[in-house]
């Protein structure tokens, strides 16, 4: 399953935007209002849960300074990645697109597609407010 967020335009430089996303504690600012729990576990891992959903632990999998940051599920139960593609528009404006990618059976994919799409849209919309 692959889901792409709408493009978010951030009024920060490419470097500032990357540094914001690379500091995992900042993801709390991007989360939906129905967040139930958020906890930074280490420099490379954080845990979150939304009301009615299980806890998810994300960890840094790949970083390409100022252009890409890939987070992935720390558990093999639901293997997926959440990638941030960062492109500079000009020196104080940056475009960010989020990509969700995961291998799920058809039933699971059908159940999670809508909530994940809504989650990604919220992250994208909140990115524009940083």
From TrEMBL:
InterPro entries: START-like_dom_sf (IPR023393). This is SRPBCC family protein. It comes from Maribacter cobaltidurans. It comes from the Bacteria. SUPFAM superfamilies: Bet v1-like.
């Amino acid at each position: 399953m692959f889901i792409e967020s709408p493009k978010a335009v951030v009024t920060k430089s490419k470097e500032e935007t990357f540094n914001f996303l690379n500091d995992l504690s900042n993801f709390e600012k991007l989360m939906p209002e129905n967040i139930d729990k958020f906890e930074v576990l280490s420099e490379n891992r954080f845990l979150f849960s939304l009301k009615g959903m299980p806890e998810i632990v994300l960890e840094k999998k790949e970083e390409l300074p100022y252009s890409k940051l890939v987070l992935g599920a720390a558990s093999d139960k639901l293997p997926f990645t959440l990638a941030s593609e960062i492109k500079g528009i000009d020196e104080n404006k940056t475009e960010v697109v989020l990509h969700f990618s995961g291998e799920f059976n058809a039933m699971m994919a059908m159940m999670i597609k809508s909530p994940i799409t809504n989650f990604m849209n919220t992250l994208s919309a909140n990115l524009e407010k940083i």
